[in-house]
Amino acid sequence: MSYPYQVRSKEEYEEAYKRSIEDPEGFWANVAQHFVWKKPWTKVLEWNFKEPSVKWFDGATLNITENCIDRHLATLGEKPAIIWEPNHPEERVRTVTYNRLHKRVCQFAQVLKNNGVKKGDRVCIYMGMVPELAYAVLGCARIGAIHSVIFGGFSAQSIADRLEDAGAEYIVTADGAYRGEKIIPLKSVIDDALIGNKTVKRVIVYTRTRTPVSMIKGRDVWWEDEMERVEEQAPSGSPGGGEVQAHGQPSEESATDLNTSQSRPGAAAKSPHRGDLEGLAVEMSAEDPLFILYTSGSTGKPKGVVHSCGGYMVWTAYTFVNVFQYQPGDVHFCTADIGWITGHSYIIYGPLAAGATSVMFEGVPTYPDAGRLWDIVDKHKVNILYTAPTAIRSLMGFGLAPLEGKDLSSLKILGTVGEPINEEAWHWYDEHIGKKKCPIVDTWWQTENGGVLISNMAGITPSKPSFATLPMPGVQPILVDEAGVEILGNPAAGNLCIKAPWPSIIRTTYGDHERCRQAYFSTYENLYFTGDGALRDEDGNYRITGRVDDVLNVSGHRIGTAEVENAINMHSAVVESAVVGYPHDIKGQGIYAFVICPELHGGEEATRLNIIQTVARIIGPIAKPDKIQFVSGLPKTRSGKIMRRILRKIAEGETSAFGDTSTLLDPSVVEEIAKGRTLP
Length: 680
Ligand code: PRX
Hints:
By secondary structure, the chain is α/β, with parallel strands linked by helices. Among the domains are: 98-275, Rossmann fold (3-Layer(aba) Sandwich), CATH 3.40.50.980; 551-675, ANL, C-terminal domain (GMP Synthetase, Chain A, domain 3, 2-Layer Sandwich). The chain contains 19 helices and 30 strands. Helix 14 (423-433) links the parallel strand 19 and strand 20 (440-443). The structure holds adenosine-5'-monophosphate-propyl ester. The site of adenosine-5'-monophosphate-propyl ester (PRX) has 22 residues, from helix 11, strand 20, strand 24 and strand 25.
């Protein structure tokens, strides 16, 4: 058995589940003992959902990066931690061994320190998918700074809001990011975000695309210069292994890897890097915050979900090893972006805590063609592929031609995350990618959860198309009705809640604990409310049916309807708007906006484009409405509340069965809106 906490059979799952519920403290202490703690805990779990207050492994101290890197060096030092696949397939692959990762993370931690970053400071990271992004994340964790990664698809305004909310004083970014044929000018977006900002003291800029940037004196510094300075400050006794190519061949350092000029790649691999920089690993309390990640809710601006060091580490490693049934030496490829929780937990922290090899992909699945993911699988002999239903549906749309000549025989396990997977996509994935020999894990979880909560374990517990199936050990899902009464027995349908805390449950929303209570712990007493609806079949398998609140899931991205409405309403011609989701073949959900706009400057089409542009500016391109329908009024109750239920029906194509409209101020408006529906 490769991991002492790995469940290897259905019986072991059942036994682990039972123990985890009967004796959660004993169960998790048993798992946690397999990690490196600087001080042991005094209490495994203390909690109440009223405040809420959840403490796991209280009293214990650790540094998560020592668990993700240092402790593997003696045995896995020259094994690849990260295999980086660039956007352009002709560019050199970079394989970052555990030794090299250690060296880079220590160096970057020193760079942060040199630039004034201290434990508890917030560092915003806005980068593309390059290994330096992982170094930045782990460098923060090394010195106890709180990282807040922002996805490259968010606009300057969104970044500005997050910087302000987090009180961030430091930014790590790049000149640009490659994304298929496009270059996203990251630094320039950051410059826009910083107009009027008074808190940010330092911006560290990595060179990736050679996009021209304006470096501001006293504020902006180059990543490469800073790394070089550290290299000169504390020359390491040993270079600690190089970045080698995927197939074990020593490689040349790439043009962008300027800071590595003094090291000898691939050489002197015997003794791992042990420099002065090692001492940078700050002793963190288990409950100290590790990172903030912003996510959308049904009201207001995105919330800063806070995860803590100890519980998050234990949960991501435990779920990584069990859900994907990772075996040492396996190559794991999660296609998510590190800007989202999936990338945090299953590209960086979970795999590295387990000493795994994690593939990090800079590009998009359709560039240079729709066979890109399959090429990567073959090139790196990927064993575990973890992707999103929207990517599967989009690739399905290209037919089977992109699969011609692809081997895919290295694959052992497939996974999906982010949204419900429809049966057609599930079967296509099973048949054409897994060749009917790879178990598919349908993993349900959320930013607030830190890691997978409901999923089958690959090859251990049965899969069922479109069902996430069974809870992980330690997770107690229940279904409740609108009044919060538990729905017992099977089958059942209701709102999905969780009864007790698992180690990586959200601790707070940054700077506003009451908001955390309101959003997750106040709807139903003593329960964590997920915001999702679910069904439970005769065998206790869960099927997630989607959000029951005003949150959209567009291509697996969470977007609040209120957020999009606020952005649309910023357009000068707009009086009011209402946004709902509608079924979309590829994205899962599309964004449908009903907009009141008394004067259409330049005509309907121009106004539509202007509104889309406004949303892209305020939130980012990911929130652009797919459809905009101009209306003269919205269906409102006498108290002024918009009846979204009706708008959702119209967006879905319903023309007459709108249910009870008698409470509407002006029922005639419904007919008018239905007539004007923007057809797909
Ligand atoms: O509605 C659920 C859906 O995605 C939401 C969480 O989104 P986010 O915080 O962005 O995290 C996504 C990646 C973990 C959930 O409330 N969701 C996530 N996974 C699944 C899912 N819906 C159905 N099946 C899933 N496997």
